[in-house]
Design goal:
alpha+beta; 5-stranded mixed sheet; 51% helix; binds zinc ion; metal-binding; SWIM-type domain-containing protein; zinc ion binding; zinc-finger; zinc
């Protein structure tokens, strides 16, 4: 359910941002409605350029690095809906209270609006990050 609505939201966001270079009130209220606790926080991370995509130099494997509000870097896979942060472990995996955390949401929003900075890193470094996730 949330996943389908999220996909619709991301599609709207993509078109909306491309055409207007800003988000409409409708997109913003859908975001707040779907994610009352993390929606605006996630948007804040995007606005403050906290989202980066790390790409392995030759493997081209990738993951997102999102700097959290406490300046801690967290690593996310958006396709698998996974984040290395404690909130994800507790409220998503353990208690199933939320569909995702604000870092994954920030990565999804940033990706949809084409605002993510890509950074190529050595494959070894990326493997190390993925191993620790
Ligand atoms: Zn997270």
């Amino acid at each position: 359910m949330t996943e389908n609505l999220l996909n619709l939201l991301l599609k709207d966001l993509k078109t909306n941002h491309r055409e207007n270079e800003r988000l409409s009130d409708q997109v913003l209220s859908t975001l707040k409605c779907l994610f009352p606790r993390i929606g605006l926080g996630a948007l804040d991370l995007v606005d403050n350029c906290k989202v980066e995509k790390l790409i392995g130099a030759s493997t081209k494997r990738s993951c997102f690095k999102v700097i959290g509000s406490s300046r801690t870097p967290y690593f996310c896979y958006i396709s698998a809906n996974y984040c290395s942060c404690p909130a994800f472990k507790y409220s998503v995996l353990r208690n199933e209270e939320n569909y995702t955390c604000k870092h994954v949401l920030a990565a999804l929003l940033s990706d949809a609006m084409n605002l993510t900075k890509n950074r190529e890193i050595p494959d070894k470094e990326l493997s190390e990050i993925l191993r620790q996730m």
